[in-house]
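Cont'd.
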Amino acid sequence: MNTSYIEIRNLSKKYTVKDNSVEALKGVSLTIPKNEIFGVIGLSGAGKSTLVRCINLLEKPDDGEVIIDGQNLLELSKQELRLKRQKIGMIFQHFNLLEQQTVLENVCFPLEIRRVPKAERKKKALEFLEKVGLADKANAYPSQLSGGQKQRVAIARVLTNEPEVLLCDEATSALDPETTKNILNLLKHIHDTMGITIVIITHEMRVIKEICTQVAVLDNGVVQECGSVKDVFENPQSKSAKRLLLIGETEEANYVG
Amino acid sequence: MLDKEMVKMLFEGVRDTCYMTLVSTFFGYLIGLPLGIFLTLTDKDGLTPNKAIYSLLDVIINITRSVPFLILLIVVMPLTKAIVGKSYGSTATIVPLTIAAAPLIGRMVESSLKDVGKGVIEAAVSMGAKTGTIVRKVLIGEARTSLLTGVAIVLGTVLGYSAMAGVVGGGGLGDIAIRYGYYRYETGIMLITLVFIIAVVQVMQGIGSFVAKKFDHRSK
């Protein structure tokens, strides 16, 4: 019933720092269906951040293809890529808000990039701030907000472009468990109401459990296992998945205890 | 010692010094700001890395910055004459001052812009922003406190240079200090002039810091 939406084919990326070269991705292929909340889990150094950054080409892969909605991103001109990126939202671990701008100005920024008229910008930005429950903070500066609030602003900012894809690069990793849960609920709500394909990169099992429908386990630059969250969690096949599950359980036990 | 003539001269000195400093700094930024932006963009971690352009600008800046101001003042005299029509007086001094200020400003701007977090720049790229928009809204917008602090530092430095121009009849407070203190051994006048110079620097630095702080919305 689902058609493939994001198609990643044989993606490779190598970093060279001085004489050391690290292969972050070794031929990763993934198919992400439309309207899915797709999780990519892995320990730090597994290559998951590189993977998500290759999806909107913040990072240029050495080899492979990234196809979104039938368009190979690597074949786009600079201008076409810019326009395509406006439809691929991204939120980050450290929120990346403009510190010198108010919350409202931050949310207006993507609209400014698209040259939306000023009055309309403001109206739309307020509408999305309302959606994330921060309309009353419109004139505050990011430094006056908590981490969870900052991420909400970042989410409102990304939504103003009405993206088709939302990439989340460790978006809850800097937040406490309670706030994480709130942000995940918000993402789920956005997914359900706006019909956005969401890709979540995380090292935390509970994030996947909470909202993802499908998951890929990344380790050592290779996809070790991929399937529905239920299957992978109940019956892990790869060593990496088993190890991640074990770490996840210990973490959970720690929260309770 | 301090007759009416003298007071008038000192105030004219202050006026000329401020005129030279402010105008040269303004022209300096016309050249130095784009210079700093290009340095930031073309550096290897920049948005549009370009080794050739970066190295070229880098070398030009290093060369101009290595020339002592007093020498620069003399070297560019033909140019000054061609632009202003004469090689002495405060308007003429603006030419070498601008040439000395521009590379300094380029470096200051470069260092301010490079302090902007990579994350915010990346966020703007991921939104499909043009490089021009990123420069304007993200680089300059986020670095504004540091840029304004830079302006205050540049003003102080340019004012110091302008005083040196007094040696070749550059006008302003430096000129007075050298004429009276050095050539006529009137230490009193020289010290008074010095107090005026310090006062001007203080006021400029004070305004600069105040404005920089006022426009800073980052966490305190």
